[in-house]
């Protein structure tokens, strides 16, 4: 946790005590390579950038990529390891309005697991070239899933607070 | 891990050694209550069921739900704690064809974090009634995110291997 550097608590924000122990453990299965080395340089959201990023899967899991190349889009889960985990209310800088953590896509959340839908450009061995990420260079990868439009796509979904901002 | 009971290795499946240590830790932030008590009773995928499920968030995180009720759809992340984590190649029973773990939505994966897009029916305090889940009753909750159609919806995405089956 690095709450002092990039994530000082703003007026209107609220933190809680974290649980005294963890409940489950994660393995980093690879790394994500992006053009962004500091949080301030990252796109505000993934649709703002057409940058090609590279997802590199550790050799241990290489065979698990079989048939991934047949997918046009993937769900990536990754670990926002620079984020504080104790905020329940946040005031995002670019909106300036208080919202609950679970109404935001902020990396600051109890379990800083980010989810992005990416377009797969190509797969070379254990390296995937994708478009649609906004995370820091070197971000730890947690999972790759096929994106099924039948269950994952809801074109008419609305985030009410965002629409009204 | 409970690889013996529900997930015996089938012909065509392959397991690898897991890493010797974990890289990050998760907190369970609540529980998901569904009508399904055994894996065989769960819908094959979430669009098969209109069952209303209840997501209960622990009191510690209650305030983080502010404004979630303005969302029509949410992304839920939850922990498939009954799944083996060492399979790289799998032969799903209902397809009978071998695929890599990262080309499947199977709960058996290095980090068994499931992602489902759900429709929010209502929120009463720290309880959310949702449609679109297929997990076991009592499944641990990891995260709730607002679903943004602008970044999360790709209606024309294709999973090539699935289309051809």
Written account of the structure:
The structure is a homodimer of 165-residue chains. Chain A is mostly beta strands. Chain A is built from two helices and ten strands. Chain A has helices at residues 149-152, 160-164, and strands spanning 14-15, 24-26, 30-33, 52-57, 73-79, 87-90, 99-100, 113-124, 127-131, 139-146. In chain A, the strands form two sheets. In chain A, strands 3-4-9-8-5-10 form a six-stranded antiparallel β-barrel. In chain A, strands 1-6-7 form a three-stranded antiparallel β-sheet, with no helix packed on it. In chain A, strand 6 and strand 7 (99-100) form a beta hairpin. The model of chain A is unreliable at 1-6 (pLDDT under 50). Chains A and B meet through strand 2, strand 5, strand 6, strand 7 and strand 8 of A and strand 2, strand 5, strand 6, strand 7 and strand 8 of B.
Helical amount among residues of chain A, as a percent range?
under 10%
- Number of separate helices of chain A: 2
* Strand line-up across the major sheet of chain A: 3-4-9-8-5-10
> pLDDT average of chain A, as an integer?
91
The two chains with the largest interface, and their residue counts, are: A-B, 77 and 77 residues
Largest sheet of chain A: 6 strands, antiparallel, barrel
Q: Detail the poorly predicted runs of chain A.
A: 1-6
Give the overall shape of chain A: globular
For the record, give the distance between the C-alpha atoms at the N and C termini of chain A, rounded to a whole number: 30 Å
Based on helices, strands and strand pairing, what is the structural class of chain A?
mainly beta
Overall strand count of chain A:
10
Strand composition percent of chain A: 25-35%
Helix and strand element order of chain A: EEEEEEEEEEHH
- Counting copies of identical and different chains, the oligomeric state is homodimer
Radius of gyration of chain A: 17 Å
């Amino acid at each position: 946790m690095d709450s002092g550097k990039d994530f000082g608590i703003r007026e209107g924000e609220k933190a809680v005590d974290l649980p005294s122990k963890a409940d489950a453990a994660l393995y980093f299965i690879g790394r994500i390579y992006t053009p962004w080395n500091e949080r301030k340089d990252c796109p505000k959201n993934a649709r703002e950038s057409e940058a090609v990023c590279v997802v590199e899967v550790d050799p241990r899991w290489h065979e698990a990529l079989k048939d991934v190349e047949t997918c046009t889009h993937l769900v990536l889960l990754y670990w926002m390891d620079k984020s504080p985990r104790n905020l329940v209310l946040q005031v995002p800088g670019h909106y300036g309005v208080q919202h609950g953590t679970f109404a935001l896509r902020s990396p600051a959340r109890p379990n800083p697991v980010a989810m992005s839908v990416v377009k797969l450009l190509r797969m070379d061995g254990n390296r995937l070239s994708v478009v649609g990420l906004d995370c820091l260079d070197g971000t730890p990868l947690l999972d790759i899933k096929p994106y099924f439009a039948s269950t994952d796509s809801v074109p008419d979904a609305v985030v009410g607070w965002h629409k009204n901002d």
